[in-house]
Design brief:
Elements: H1 7-12, H2 15-34, E1 40-44, E2 50-54, H3 56-90, H4 100-103, H5 105-156, H6 165-182, H7 186-205, H8 213-233, H9 235-238, E3 244-245, H10 266-270, H11 277-303, H12 305-315, H13 317-322, H14 327-353, E4 355-356, H15 363-376, H16 381-398, H17 404-408, H18 418-432
Antiparallel strand pairs: 1-2, 3-4
Length: 463
């Protein structure tokens, strides 16, 4: 929380004095902000009358926590960070060799992801693994794939896209409509949904070729809302707000089915006990394979001329044009490629849910995906994956924190406060590491030695 203070007074005041003053200001501001949100709550009594429930104790706890947090940050954390920064600047540069974990972090991570369902099944059994594989595995990997797709547009090409959820919706509805009406297989509709989303990505790219920055963000935001409103109002095709149900499941390459009534049901073919966990585990490995495909294609494209053109466009569009790079083609390929992976994720989402509706593709989804890209570090695949794990996994963990009801009362619902915690996490990360968790801007093309671009050459918070 930024507080304007007199710099001359700060030069004389000790850190503890400044911390006490700013803690008082922070507590007063928190009191003014939260007195109506936390201190008072509307409810209904037994006569169905509107009453105000006073929660002054909870309000006092929030105000005290805010003041104490500000005091500790200004009085102790800030001086400690300043001393560490000065010591680091004085110390000679020492090149340390990366350890085993750091050198093999990607391989270890992929191995852990491959073994995750096996470990969960061994710990809690097949039926108990449904929640952990679905909510903490498949759900997180869907957002990882979406964020990696948006990373091509935002992180590599530098084009701010606030309507990315539109391509997610196009992929989901393409699979839902073609699968329910024509009975086509998922393995045919998966590339079809990606191609259709890429086509819409090109259609979005043409009107915004001359736009940059805030103007580009507004137009892409409008595009996402247009797609959502079309899905709501074109009832003859999309069934409007009621959505589309009965979407066919994914089969095991046409060899085995996951429907109990089918003669080639997996349990009947393999002679094992029936369980709904088989389908969830299969979906987990399927979305994991799609995520790895997205990462592989992104890494390969970065090393190709088109990837270097994206990076040049991100750094400086005018300089990019002066080098003879066709910025029109560069922008369109970025939009199309990112949209294609969004379409892949959308078709998988429809197959996993068995039901799609416009409520699943609101602007908040675009905001969450963009926040994952920014918090993880634009251009960093590992950082984005970590950010998705923290944000989406943290939201799911809130559903399991039933012990908070003992502290805040039986009516307390932890998951309702996920956006508050989400906003606090964004503020903290942006203050602590403006480039994201693993943000490092390393150009693909380099001479003799790869070096990260210093933060002094870029705007704070950009890349």
């Amino acid at each position: 929380m930024a507080v304007t203070v007199n710099p001359e007074r700060d030069a004389v005041a000790t850190p503890i004095q400044r911390a006490l003053r700013e803690a008082f200001y922070a507590g007063a501001i928190a009191l003014g902000l939260f007195v109506l949100f936390i201190g008072l709550r509307t409810d209904q009594n037994i006569s169905n009358e509107l009453i105000l429930v006073q929660r002054w104790g909870l309000l006092a706890g929030v105000v005290i926590a805010t003041a104490v947090g500000r005091f500790l940050y200004v009085g102790f954390a800030q001086p400690a960070m300043q001393r560490a920064k000065e010591e680091k600047a004085k110390a000679p540069a020492v090149v340390t060799e990366a350890g085993f974990v750091r050198r093999n972090f990607t391989k270890i991570g992929i191995g852990a992801l491959l073994l995750y369902p096996v470990i969960i099944v061994l710990l809690v059994g097949f039926q108990g693994s449904l929640k952990w594989v679905d909510n903490f595995g498949i759900q997180i990997l869907i957002y990882v794939m979406l964020a990696w797709g948006l990373n091509i547009v935002v992180g590599l090409a530098g084009l701010l896209d606030l309507g990315y959820v539109a391509f997610y919706a196009v992929g989901a509805y393409a699979y839902a409509l073609l699968g329910t009406h024509y009975g086509l297989s998922f393995w045919i509709l998966l590339p079809a949904a990606g191609c259709m989303a890429a086509f819409w990505g090109v259609l979005l790219g043409f009107p915004v070729l001359r736009l940059r920055g805030d103007y580009l963000a507004i137009v892409t935001l409008a595009f996402g809302e247009i797609i959502r409103l079309v899905l709501i109002n074109w009832r003859e095709v999309t069934n409007g707000s009621a959505g589309i149900s009965g979407i066919p499941k994914v089969s095991f390459f046409g060899l085995m089915s996951f429907n109990v009534s089918d003669p080639n049901y997996i349990a009947k073919v393999l002679g094992i006990a029936q369980s709904g966990a088989y389908y969830k585990i299969f979906l987990y490995y399927l979305i994991l394979a799609l995520c790895l495909l997205t990462a592989f294609v992104t890494i390969r494209l970065r090393r190709l001329p088109v990837g270097r053109a994206w990076e040049a466009l991100r750094e400086d569009e005018i300089a990019c044009r002066s080098l003879g790079i066709n910025t029109t083609t560069t922008k369109l390929t970025a939009f199309a490629t990112g949209a294609m992976f969004g379409g892949f994720a959308g078709s998988f989402f429809a197959a996993r849910q068995g039901f799609v509706s416009p409520e699943s593709f609101v602007f908040l989804e675009s905001a969450i995906i963009l926040a994952i890209v920014v918090l993880g570090g634009m251009g960093s695949l590992v950082g984005i994956a970590i950010a998705a794990l923290v944000m989406i996994g943290g939201t799911e963990i809130l559903r399991e924190l039933d012990f908070l009801k003992v502290v805040f009362g039986p009516d307390f619902t932890p998951e309702l406060y996920r956006m508050l915690l989400f906003g606090m996490a964004m503020v903290i990360v942006m203050l602590w590491k403006p480039r994201g968790f693993v943000g490092s801007r390393e150009p693909t093309a380099f001479l003799k030695e790869r070096r990260a671009v210093s933060s002094s050459f870029t705007k704070e918070g950009h890349g």
